[in-house]
Amino acid sequence: MAATARERALRRRKAPTLAWRDELQNHTFLHTMYCQNWSPSIGLLEAYDGDQLFSFNFSQNTRVPRLPEFADWAQKSGDMPTISFDKAFCQAMIEEIGPKLEGQIPVSRGIPMVDVFTLKPLEFGKPNMLVCFISNLFPPTLTVNWWHHLDPVEGMGPTFVSAVDGFSFQAFSYLNFTPAPSDLFSCVVTHEIDNYTAIAYWVPHDALPSDLLENVLCGIAFGLGMLGIIVGLVLIVYFRKPCS
C-alpha cells in the first residue's frame, strides 16, 4: 500500500516547467519557387518572418540580397543542385501537366491593391523616398510606373516581389524625391495577365515644419517674449511711482 500511495503522489506532482521554453518564439523561413507562362517565367524568393532576404537571378545563378547586410550570405551556393532540380521540376509541371489540366481546374487571380507612403516623416525640401506597396498579387507578373502630375517619372528603382503565406505575392517599388507642397504623385500598377490597372495617389499631408518655418516661428516666439518682458518692466515702473 505504501508503494501505491507513493505512485499516486508522483502522478499528482506537476512536472517542472522549463523557463527557457517561455522565451522561445516561432520563426518562419519561406523558400518559394514559382514558374509561369508570363514574365518572369521562373522565380525564387526567400523570406524570414515575412521580410524578404533574397531573390535569385537564374541567368547568373546567384542570389540577390534585398539589403547589403545580407551580401555575405548570398555568396553561399551549397544548395545549387537543389535549386536546379526544383527549377527543372517546376518547368516540367508547366510544360507537361499544365496543358492537360487547362480548363479543368479554376485559374486563380488576385486583384492588386496599391498604397503609397513616404519612407521617412515628411519634411518639405528634404530628400525622402516614396514607397509603392502592392498586395494581393497573383500571379506575380506586373508593371509599375510612377507619374508626377501628368508626366511620367524616370529613374525609378527596381520592383521587388516577395512571397507571402497563402500562395500570394506582394511587391514594392521605390522612388527617390524631394517633397514640395504642390506635389502629386501616382503609382500605376498593371497586372499583365489581365491588363487590370490599379492606381494610388500621394499628396503631401501632415508635413513636419521645415527649417525656414521653424526659424520664423522661433523668431515670432522670441519677439513676443521680449515684448512681454518690456511690458512687464513698464508696468512695474508705473505702479512703483508715488501717488500724487
UniProtKB/TrEMBL annotation:
Domain of life: Eukaryota
Pfam families: C1-set (PF07654), MHC_II_alpha (PF00993)
Domain Ig-like: 112-200
Membrane-spanning ranges: 219-239
Keywords assigned by UniProt, alphabetized: Adaptive immunity, Disulfide bond, Glycoprotein, Immunity, Membrane, MHC II, Transmembrane, Transmembrane helix
Main location: membrane
Subcellular location, record wording: Membrane
GO annotations of cellular component type: MHC class II protein complex
Any one GO BP annotation for this protein: antigen processing and presentation of peptide or polysaccharide antigen via MHC class II
Membrane disposition: Single-pass type I membrane protein
Similarity remark: Belongs to the MHC class II family.
Protein name: HLA class II histocompatibility antigen, DM alpha chain isoform X2
Species for this entry: Vulpes vulpes (Red fox)
Gene from which the chain derives: LOC112913868
